[in-house]
Design a protein that fits this description.
- The structure is a single chain.
- This protein has helices at about 5-15, 25-45, 45-60, 65-75, 85-95, 100-115, 115-130, 145-155, 160-170, 195-210, and strands at about 185, 190.
- The protein is built from 10 helices and 2 strands, in the order αααααααααββα.
- The protein folds into 2 domains: about 25-115, Serine Threonine Protein Phosphatase 5, Tetratricopeptide repeat; about 145-213, no CATH class.
- It has a two-stranded antiparallel ribbon with strand order 1-2.
Length: about 210
Amino acid sequence: MSFSLILISVFLMGCGNGGGGTKPPSIDEQIATHMAHGWEKFEIADYDSAEYYFDQVLSLRADVPEGQLGKGWSKMLVEDSDYQNIETLFASAVSDTSVQKDALAGLGIVNNLQKKYSSSANYINQLLEIASSYVFSHKSDINYQDLLVIQSHSYFYNKQFDQAYESILQLTTQYIFDPFDDDTWIVDGKVYPSYEGAISAVLAKLSDLYKSF
């Protein structure tokens, strides 16, 4: 065999073995790609597709906090009733400072959905202590106002009416109630027979105004 044929054979063998070919993406690169696709779908409200990509992240590395966060929010916003699993996802992510605020917001909401009202109010308190003007990083119409409404509902259902009213006052001072003065239990001209009845009426209005999911 001539020298030139030997060189051609070596070249072809190199090509057949992937010599000089594109290096496959690393695990970290694959995670970053799936994460980006997940949030892209999330931000256009395609939550089923978003969950698929976050699942891909977690299949590569099960303890990625941002993947846990994204899957939790995606499941919650498609009204998945598997609240315990959603809570577990948020709880797994919350210790990571890069996603902590969004995880606390999720915990506040999902605990309210499970009627764990004390936990819900406490998680929202924790969030607002570190971010009083909180805005969800991947869905800006979810913010501290929505969470104050949820917190007020949690206090109300827990029969903590003064705390419910305090949360309302952080949203509006239009309604000034004295729990011991029935002349103040007025909402838009209507007199309510109880302090809690007046609070409930304001909460209904605020839920329509602020709750964006």
